[in-house]
Every structure is written in structure tokens, then in C-alpha cells.
Amino acid sequence: MSPIVEPFFHPPSATWSYLIHDPDSAHAAILDPVLDFDRASGETYTTSVDRLIERSRELDLTVDWILETHAHADHLSAAIRVHDELGGKIGIGHGIGKVQAHFKHSLNLEANLATDGSQFDHLFEDGEIFKIGNLIVRVHASPGHTHDSVSYRIGDTLFVGDTLFMPDGGTARCDFPGGDAGVLYDSIQKLLLLPTDTRIFVCHDYGPNGREPRCETTVAEQKSNNIHMHEGISREQFMAIRQARDATLNMPTLIYPAIQVNIRAGQLPPIESNGSRFLKLPIHAKQ
Question: Which residues, 6 or more positions from 243, have their beta carbon under 8 angstroms from its beta carbon?
Fold first, then answer.
């Protein structure tokens, strides 16, 4: 059975969020919701995610799940906003513990920050199956971009997070902690074994060469046209392409604010003794 998929685009981060619902039971999931964040002022607001919430209410949907494809580095998760407004369990890949442990150490976060993924309601294992109403969802661990990356397959649809972009955008970067170009190649190869008419929904699209943002492609299109991973590209060739590309990229503007929220399942850092919350920014002094 195929889900109804409604995409929502967040231009500041070029992120696609999705409202996914079962046409038979009116049960739903929201995938990769975005919390708006003004880096200069530190203010958060909910304009983007409220569009998904309003649409869910308009359709009288029951939200069972708030699904994260990984702990994003380019936007703050609005999972808690969805949970507070609509309910639903927050789920992410089991590898989130490794991501939490790395950033707890590297950012010297609070000593009592758990690194076992317990901030989330559920940690998905590779091959796990669950349901959204009558829809059957299969989890594919898709590491390589991050430890915790997962893809969700529902009928003829596949939600790949940052693992794959549109064919003219290539693939996810692999220079974050836990990233590995060879592992990403292996993950993508497994996904591309799915039927060629499988619809693929991406998490980001930056509109290469000025085209309008798009969110949907297919396994067939990826195998034929992906600039990094089309058929015939060997593991070694892909690793060389990916590593050369990564060497030219700047770090995402929001990586430190985003990761401190996203490893907490969308919760903001705890209130400190002066009644305020703070996000840490490491200083790398060059000699």
C-alpha cells in the first residue's frame, strides 16, 4: 500500500519535511520537521512546522510518529513542537548514541546528558518493521553521512534523508563525525537494489544551476543520472569523488546550534542558573 505524501519546503535550510498519511485509516507520520531559528538573535519560531500541524488538523489525522532520518546539522528539529501539539512518538536511528557521545565530549556538554538515545521514544534498528495505520514501514540503516542515518520505506516510497540528493545534486557529504564515504557507498548500493520505480523523497534540495527545488525522484533516475553514484561508479571512484567534493565545502552555518538541539530529540538545552538557555560555539584559534 502506498502512502499519501505531502511535502513542505523550508527555504532558509533547503529542507523538505513530509506529512505522510494512510489513506484508509487517517493515521500519519511527520518526517524531519524544522524549527525556525534566527542565529543572530537566538530566537526560535514555529512558522514552518505549524504549516504541517495545521494541515494535519485540517485532514483530521492522527499522528503516530515523528520520524527523524538523522540528527541534522543544518536545521533545528521541531519534533517537540509536533509532539506537544499532535502527539506521536519521536523516532530516530539506533546510531544516535554515537552522535550524542561525540558531541557531548567535543562541546563539553552537561555531565548528565544521556548518550544512550533515551531522549527519543524509539530507536530504530536496521530491518525493523512498524506501522502507520495500515501502512507497513521498513527501516533501512543508511550510515555514511552520519552514524544514525536511516531511510524509511513505505510501499513504493523511500525517504532517504541526506543519504541521496536529487540526481543533479549527488549525495550527502561524509566529513561529519562518523561520516565515511565507503560506508555511504555501501548504504546507497543497498537502497538502489529496490525496484526501479520506487519513489525516492529527499531531505534537501539546493536547486543546482538555479532550477526550482524538487523533492521526488526514483531509483531508476538515481541509477542512471546521479552525478556521484550512477551505475558503473566503483566504490573507490565514489570515495575519491566524495572526498574531493567534501574538501571544498564549508561547515553548515547552523551545525553547532542544530546538533545541540537535535541530539536531544528537539529539546532546547537546559535552563542555566540565570534563567536563560545557551548554545555553545567552540573557538578554533589559528596561529
Answer: 174, 181
Q: What is the pLDDT of residue 287?
A: 62
Total domains, the chain: 1
Residue at 280 is within a domain: no
Number of Cβ atoms within 10 Å of the Cβ of 163: 28
Say what the pLDDT of residue 25 is.
94
Q: CA 177 to CA 99: how far, in whole Å?
A: 8
Residue 283 lies in a domain: no
The domain that holds 114 is classified in CATH as 3.60.15.10
Whether 122 maps to a domain, the answer reads yes
Beta strands in the chain (DSSP E): 4-10, 15-21, 27-31, 34-38, 43-45, 62-67, 76-77, 89-93, 122-124, 129-132, 135-141, 150-154, 157-159, 199-201, 216-218
Cβ atoms of 30 and 61 closer than 8 Å = no
| pLDDT at residue number 60 | 98
Give the CB-side neighbour count of residue 259, counting CA atoms within 13 A.
26
Residues of the chain with pLDDT under 50: none
Q: What is the pLDDT of residue 135?
A: 98
Q: What is the pLDDT of residue 160?
A: 98
**Does residue 257 belong to any structural domain of this protein?**
no
Cβ–Cβ under 8 Å, residues 9 and 112: no
In this prediction, residue 1 carries a pLDDT of: 78
Per the structure, the complete domain to which residue 182 belongs is given by 4-251
Q: Which three cell numbers stand for residue 154?
A: 513505505
What pLDDT is recorded for position 284?
79
What cell numbers appear for 26 in the block? Answer: 487517517
